Amino acid sequence: MRLTKIICTLGPATASPESIRGLLERGMNVARINFSHGSREQHTAMIAAVQEAGKALGIPVGILLDTKGAEIRTGDRKVPLAVHAGDELVFSPFDMPEEKRPVVHVNYDGFASDVRNTPRILVDNGEMVFEVVSVDPKGFVVARANDDGSIGSRRHINLPGVDIDLPSVTAKDWDDIAFGIDQGMDYVALSFIRTAKEMAEVKEFIRNRGSHMLAIAKIETQLAVDNLDAIIDASDGVMIARGDLGAEIPFERIPAIQHFIIERCTALGKPVIVATHMLESMTQHPMPTRAEVTDVAHAAMGRTDCTMLSGETAGGKHPFLALEAMDRILRETESHLSPLDPTGMSVDEHDARARAAVSMANALRIPAIAVLTRSGKTAAAVSRLRPLMPILTAAPADDVRRRMQILYGVQSVAVEFHTDPEQTVQEAFRAFRAKNLLKSGDRIVLVSDTKTQSGRIGSVQVRTVD
User: Which of 14, 266, 276, 313 is catalytic?
Assistant: First the structure.
C-alpha cells in the first residue's frame, strides 16, 4: 500500500468523467483544479465529475482549488511570437500600434515600475530570460532576449526578487474561494502568498463561511522564503511550488529549501506537497527521464505527504502513464525506507497516543495502525510520525475522510460511531475487511476510545481482527 499521496491536476487531457475515473482507479488521491485556467462552468463540471466518480468507486477523494493569485501574464496571441537571442522586445500593459519592435502585452499596469527593481524578466518559469535594457517613463519596458524561443498566450512572467505591487489574494481569488466552499471543495492552495497575515485572512474568511476547507500556502516567491517559518505556522499545509520558486531564487537553492520545508512541516504536523516539473518530460514522452525518477524518489525519501502532477495530467499526452510511473517510483522508494524514531516529548493527548501507537507497531512488527477518529486529528498526529505501515482510519463524516486524503499513509473508510466504543471498533473492522485493507487474523495497533467503569477513555491496544 503506497504511503505518499498523489495529487493530479485536471485539465483538457483529463476533464472527462471517464478520464477522472481512470485517474482514481490508478491511484489519484486528490484532484487539483487550477483556477488560472478554464471557466466557472468547466470547474463546476470537473468538481461534479470527481465527486460522482469517488462515490461510484467508494473512494474518498479530496478536491484542491488552486488560486490564480497576483500573477503577471502575457496577453493572448493568435500565433506564438518567435524570439531570437539578441532580439529587443517591448513589454507593455497598453497597445503600441506604432512600435516597430515586437510588443509583448502584459496584464499589469505597474509592470514598468516594478521592473526597476530587477535586472531580468523571466517568461515561462525561466524558459526564456530577458535582460532589461530600459524602462520608459510612459510605462513600457525594453528588454533583450538571452536565448532563442517563443512566447505564446498567457505565459507567466517572473520578476526575480521583486515584491510586486499587487495583493497576493485578488478579488478573483476571494470569489473563487467562496465558490469552492459552496461546491464542497476540501483545500485551497494560495498562489504567491508572501506573509502569514495573508494566510490568516484567508482562514478567517473560510471560518466565517462555516467551512472546514484547509488553506495551503504555496511557497513560490523570495518573500515567502524570507517569511517561511511564520507562513508555515499560519497555514494548514504547504505546497513547494518549485516552478515559480525556481524562477524567483537561484535554482541551486531549491533542494535545500525543499528539504527544510518538508522537515519543518512534518515537525509541526502540517501536510506538505512537493509540486511542479516532477515528471515534466512525460507531457510528451511515455517514459520519465532518470533525473525525474530520482526527483520523485528524493521527495519520497524526505517523507513528503504528497507529490503532485501538473501539466503531466492536465494537458500531457500520457496522463495515465505519468500517474502510473509516479505510483511505481513512490512504492519502490518506500520499500527501502527505515523507520523513524517516534519517541519524544508529546504536545497533547493526540500526540501521546500517536507516539505510543507507532512505537508499539514498530516494536512488534505489526503491519497496520487503525485509528477511529471524528475530526481527523489523531490520524494526523500518527501520520506526522511517518510510520512505514498504513494508517487505517474510520470516520463518520465524508468531509473529514476527504480532507485526510492529503495525509501521509492514511486510508479511510466510513463508519458510524456508537455509544458503545467496541461496537464502533467491530464495524470498523468489517469496513476494513470489505475494502481488503485487513483480513481476519491480522494483528493491528488500534487507537480508539474504550469503555471502563469510570467511563470512556482513550486507549492504544494490540488487537487481532476477527
Answer: 276
